[in-house]
Specification:
The protein is an all-alpha fold and 189 residues long. 59% of the residues lie in helices and 0% in strands. The model has no long low-confidence stretch (mean pLDDT 90).
């Protein structure tokens, strides 16, 4: 009588499919992603406030020399080309900083993994804004730090992996028909 080999029962079949929300058809968003997006949008508002404060102070010749850190350092004469150039620099920096924070928040909501690196860029731009314009931008800096910290939490990392899995699924490719029939189909003739 041959001896039987002792084996374990088969393991349950693993399903690596990402659970999708029945309402949206997308991976379920953790609360950290929603909070990070809102915080980054608030950072955009704080950047706008910082620039608005500078603009308000720059509108008057009495407060113009102290309206921004870079203006204090360079001491341009109000209305001359250097002061006008500085205003273009400030506007461009504010546009880049606000756009960086807003874009990172939007794409984090949509599950893009690169938003972690984009958050570091937004952090650097916001720090530059606080250093060159005014300290009101530190509010935006704190908000960007908070939003970036939330993007590095484990639930958000899992959310990004789920989106990578959903995006990697290939749709069935288009197959050209072998024959095209014009008029009535042959089965109806």
């Amino acid at each position: 009588m041959p001896k039987e080999i002792a084996t374990l029962p088969p393991l349950a079949e693993l399903k690596n499919e990402t659970p999708l929300s029945p309402r949206t058809g997308e991976p379920r968003r953790p609360a950290a992603v929603a909070v990070a997006a809102v915080v980054l949008y608030l950072a955009v508002a704080a950047v706008a406030f910082s620039y608005g404060w500078h603009w308000f102070r720059a509108a008057y010749s009495e407060t113009y020399p102290g309206s921004a850190h870079l203006t204090v350092w360079l001491e341009p004469e109000p209305g001359k080309w250097v002061s006008l150039f500085l205003e273009f620099v400030y506007a461009g920096l504010v546009g880049l900083t606000g756009a960086a924070a807003g874009v990172v928040g939007f794409h984090a909501w949509n599950g893009e993994r690169w938003t972690r690196w984009g958050g570091l860029v937004a952090l650097a731009l916001t720090g530059l804004l606080a250093g060159l314009v005014n300290l009101w931008a530190l509010i935006a800096l704190g908000l960007v730090v908070l939003g970036l910290a939330l993007l590095f939490t484990p639930p958000v990392g899992r959310y990004f992996r789920e989106w990578d899995d959903v995006r990697s699924r290939s749709e069935p490719r288009y197959r050209r028909p072998t024959a095209v029939v014009y008029g009535r189909l042959p089965r109806y003739r």
